[in-house]
Amino acid sequence: MAERRKKKVKAENFFDFTLLFTVLFLILFGLVVLYSVSSYEANIKFGDGMHYLKNQSKATVLGLVAMVFAVVIDYHIWERFAFAAYVFSLGTIFLILTPLGREFNGARRWIFIGPLSIQPAEIVKVGLIIFLAALIAKMGKGIKTGSAFWTILGITAVPCFLLLVITRNLSSALIVAGIAAVILFMADPSYLKYILSAVAVAFIALLLVMNALSKSEKMEGKGDFRQARVVAWLHPEEFEEESSFQTIQGLYAIGSGGMFGKGLGESIQKMKLPEAQNDMVFSIICEELGAFGGICVIALFALLIYRCMLIAINAPDAFGALLVVGVMGHFALQVVLNIAVVTNTIPNTGVTLPFISYGGTSVVFLLCEIGIVLNVSMRIRKQEQLAG
Amino acid sequence: MSKKKRGKRRPPLTREERLRKEHRERRKLFRSMKEKLFWFVGIVFIAFVLLGFRIVYISKEKGDEYTKQVLLHQQYDSRTLPFKRGEILDAGENKLAYSEKVYNLILDANEINSSKKEDALSETMKALSTYFQIDTTEVAAFIKDNPHSMYRVIKKRISYDIVEPFLQAKEENKSICGIWFEEEYKRKYPCGTMASALIGFSGTDNNGQCGLEKYYDDTLNGSNGREYGYFTEESTLERTTIPARDGDTLVTSLDINLQNIVEKYMDGFVAAHRGEYREGEDGVKNMGIIMMNPKTGEILAMADYPNFDLNDPYDMTKFLSQGEIDAMDEEARLDYLNGIWRNFCISDTYEPGSVAKSMTIAAGLDSGALAGTESFFCGGKLTVSGHEIKCHKHSGHGMVNLSQALEQSCNVALMQIGEMEGKDTLMKYLYNFNMGLKTNIDLSGEARTDSLVYKPENMVASDLAISTFGQGYNVSMIQMVSAFCSIVNGGKYYQPHLVTEIRDSAGTTLKKIEPRMLKQTISATTSDTMREYLTNVCLKGTGKTAVPAGYVIGGKTGTAERQPRDGINYVMSFMGFAPVDDPQVVIYCVIDRPNVEDQPHSTLAQDVVKDILTEALPYLHIYRTEELTEEQIRELEEKNLLSVSENGVNKQDTETTEDAQEPAEPVNQYDPETGALIDPSTGLPVQTEEDDGTPSSDLGGLIGIENDPAKALDDDSRIGPPNASGLGGSSGGNSGIGAGAAVGAGDLDVDYQQDNSPSDTQQAPSPGGETTVDFGAGVGF
Q1: Residue A165 DSSP symbol
Q2: Within the 212-251 window of chain A, which residues sit less than 8 Å (CB to CB) from chain B?
């Protein structure tokens, strides 16, 4: 009997191959681009052009294994371990303070366990998505209450604060807060308070920019580095050799690529942009593959987000839907912020481009998230698939 | 598992109930969520679209500006460190080609403008005009118009002698700023036109054109290094350098002293006949001379005309007037240049003429078709399958034996020999002598001749007949000289080559290129006999003129009529070797269409060879063995060519001083009258034993046979009437009468035009690049 039912469920169920192949394509494309972008610097630093590619490939394989596990395991299990995941992820931030944590490139953001170097910020994102999704699903209609709103705000504030204080990583904190905001916005039927919040955030941002500008005038740009970045954002050419160096070099890369680029591997700017394989990788994509190549990458992420939306709408229960929403928010925020930074639309923050920027922890946990989304998609029954 | 556990907590639902419950929940939950999802995704997509527009905007609006910035910065922050192309040396380590570092003067206007010193601009301008003679008004105007420019090349390729005093001045005067230098290499050829097509040239792009420069392009080139500005996290500029890897050096077997001698007489010949018959034309259409070491296949000298100045290879004024050059379009100019750059010695083909008779006779002796005792009758012509082929001596040579056939260069005898050999044997041997195959000499542009030789299956009797005296098929000089080396050196065919050693830029030997023997063309015994015959050619045959005073040499003359066979245009050649018992040098001179009224005299080539050998043999430690006549001594003294041994005064070039001090090698002496070997101790003719122990008939013995009319008659009677036997064999065995008739009519013009051949050489109209062949009357001397 059980056997028959299982078969039936299997036959009826849905699997989002579009999402899977989009992700696989992005991963492979990311590896190719990473090699092109990083080989020059890897050669100088390590004497091995494949250095970054090798590391990233190992992480990708690990991530794919993790993704398969996430696809196989029923996502409802995460509901029970939600709080544990949250606490565990917070714990990893504290590990940075122990001897396991190590400073690298002037920032203490990594923990090293044996051969693995892990960025706790990435774990926190996954932990928070699971915990918030479980919490809100449990609340049900209770989400509308004010106390629920503040509870969630408090739950989010803790990792944000820790990331800011311990790792001094504003961008990660911003992403974490953003993910929470997206989940909350989706779960709560109310609009007004979110529109008000958005206006408030925009106003504060404006104030900060004004503040930074006035300060920079007084101190000739020698304020703290975030303020300097704001000034550099508005006048990149003026600070070419200083704080806006990275930004302006990225812009040069995009501009010199033209519509169809110089061709894969032909970038000149990758020799100049420090750590081009990290945050600024998109500018090198534009240089080598042109504006056209850049837009294609954006289109791929758009497809990924669209598939997440469909899955969220058709998810069998609130927990599943909110999980998918969290992952979708995570991707959307990172992609938009990263490309906005690279094109100098917003001031420089260190946000990486999912699947393409160099970073092992990021790839592993992003793939875990995709695995969870795919698992949710498997619970959608065929006849309900059209509900989107 | 999980379902079981959950089942404990609440009562299990039926599938339908569960579905309905879930559906209810979802309806409630998702009504608002769906809406919000659309909002969110909508906003994200709008953001994507805006960002897309932003990217397009950046690349469209700022593309040009940013591209300029990228290129500017690239040159400023990270620059290429050029590698040094490897040198080309001759056998005595003299530089034939090398690269010299030169400097490009770069102006950084930005630095001058941002200098704290008041007089930065004026002092810098002053220095520029003092040390580099640069017009500073232009530069000052540029600085004013482009105050932020950081990279502008003001002057190119300045040598270090000029840069150095400026750098010193800059040290002392701190006001001078905004000037720096970029390194580059300039290729230099200290020997100018010497061995021009052989060496080849390369520009600043390090791209070798023709000759060694092209063939060894990859070896000579290294890889560029790089110095780059590298930015750390703190955005401070750090410089890192990857040094350039310099190219490898080639050591060649070429000897510039020999090359000098060869070119001196080649240029002398060309100059002597300039405008002599054809007005306004050079002394020759083409001319080539190769000197080769028969024991190794190494090229000692290789000269060809027309030659050009390697330091200025695009200069055509040597050959054309300015008006003619201006009248040419770009393509015509390049075609003409390619013609000049072409190496006649390897890229052009022609019919070898009578020099090839040595291959025919060697084939006969080696295959056993000839016993060496045969005699032939020459009546001045021979009819082969109905087609009359004349000997160059129309009255005929009468009875000739094998050696005399070669000495007199008798076409009729050779045709009979060909008849005895048969086309299969002859072609097998010609193929063995590498006719129709590339020699694979290490020079670019070697001609392919595979379609320019006969295939035995397509040969008719007349083809065989003219092949025996070197007409009807085409060869290149390098093929001919390599084949001839094997005839005189004991039958060993060496691959001709130039490069003997490759060294890295530090001087460490990377590779030694040893002589490569490819095959045994003929046996050592046959080779011995051939040397005797060829010596006779120069002792009393057609090659007498080529013999330098005091020497015995061997050799073979050649004259071949060029297409169209109108009796006007000829290719004259002479192939020689010395000493006759142990050849150490083979020389081959080919003169294509000399500018003289009456061309067909191989003495033209012989004179050149004689002059060259007179100077070159003493230089090569090969000493005179014969008594000099009064006249010869006078002649040599006039030319300042008598060495220590003859007059006690060293008048040799400084290069040979060292050689002259070395003890003279024991040299075999010949009786000047009979040409017989003389034992130095007894003064009597001796019988020599060769290295392999095979007793060879000495020269005296051979002459004895020739001088014995009874013996000659005996040979005749044994063979029978030579023309009868020859014709009988021919008409009996030849089925291609129709073809023969066509040949007779003279219409069967088979054009072996080089342009039709699949040749990998530059197809430029060289002054004489068209070599065509027909079946008409070949004339050989």
Answers
A1: I
A2: 241-243, 245-246, 251
Which residue among B235, B252, B269 closes a domain?
B252
Kindly state whether residue B761 falls inside one of the protein's structural domains.
no
Put simply, whether A382 touches B (Cβ < 8 Å) is no
Residue B59 shares a structural domain with residue B115: no
Q: Which residues contact B103 (CB under 8 A, 6 or more apart)?
A: B157, B158, B159, B160, B163, B181, B182, B183, B184
Chain A residues whose CB is inside 8 A of the B48 CB are 298-299, 301-302, 335-336
Q: Which two tokens stand for residue B717?
A: 């009677």
Please state the φ and ψ torsions of residue B187, each to the nearest 5 degrees.
-80, 135
CATH number of the domain that residue B434 is part of: 3.40.710.10
Alpha-carbon dihedral of residues B541, B544, B545, B546, nearest 10 degrees?
A: 110
Nearest to A255 among B52, B59, B230 (CB): B59
In a domain, B9, yes or no: no
Contact state of B51 with A336 under an 8 Å Cβ cutoff:
yes
Residue B678: its pLDDT value, please? Answer: 45
The verdict on B510 and B526 lying in the same domain is yes
Question: Once rounded to an integer, what is the mean pLDDT over residues A230-242?
Answer: 65
Using CA atoms, how far apart are residues B719 and B429, in angstroms rounded to an integer?
A: 25
Q: Is B160 part of a structural domain of the chain?
A: yes
Report the chain A residue with the minimal C-alpha distance to residue B25.
Answer: A317
Nearest to A354 by CA among A289, A288, A296, A304: A304
For an interface test with B, which of A254, A311, A319, A330 has the most B Cβ atoms less than 10 Å from its Cβ? Answer: A254
CA B231 from centre of chain: 50
Count Cβ atoms below 10 Å from residue A299 Cβ, excluding itself: 12
* Minimum mean pLDDT range among A87-96, A258-267, B356-365, B408-417: A258-267
Same domain, B75 and B141: no
* Beta carbons within 8 Å of B750's beta carbon, 6+ residues apart: B773, B774, B775
CA distance linking residue B17 with residue B12, whole number of Å? 10
Chain A interface disruption, residue of B59, B78, B226, B236, most A CBs within 10 A: B59
B347: which 2 tokens?
């890229």
Residues B196 and B344 in one domain: no
Does residue A332 sit at the B interface (CB-CB below 8 Å)?
A: yes
Mean pLDDT of A147-173: 89
Residue B69, domain extent: 39-81
> Residues A24-52: pLDDT tens digits?
999 999 999 999 888 877 877 777 888 89
Query: What HEC string does B114-147 produce?
Result: CCCCCCHHHHHHHHHHHHHCCCHHHHHHHHHHCC
pLDDT tens digits along B536-586: 999 988 888 899 988 999 999 998 888 777 777 889 999 999 899 899 999
CA dihedral B81, B85, B86, B92 (to 10 degrees): -120
For B163-216, what is each residue's pLDDT tens digit?
888 888 888 887 888 888 888 888 889 988 899 999 999 876 788 888 899 999
Residues of A whose CB is below 8 A from B63: 255-256, 258
CA B636/CA B651 separation, integer angstroms: 11
Determine the residue among B44, B45, B46 to mutate to test chain A binding: the one whose Cβ has the most chain A Cβ atoms within 10 Å: B44
With a CB cutoff of 8 Å and minimum separation 6, the contacts of A161 are A173
> What is the rounded distance in angstroms from the CA atom of residue B391 to the CA atom of residue B408?
10
Examine the domain organization and report whether B583 and B501 are in the same domain: yes
Pick the more confident residue, B616 or B23: B616
In a domain, B34, yes or no: no
Nearest CA in chain A to B241: A44
- Is the sign of the CA dihedral A386, B2, B6, B7 positive or negative? positive
Partner residues linked to B555 by β-bridges = B576
How many structural domains are present in chain B? 3
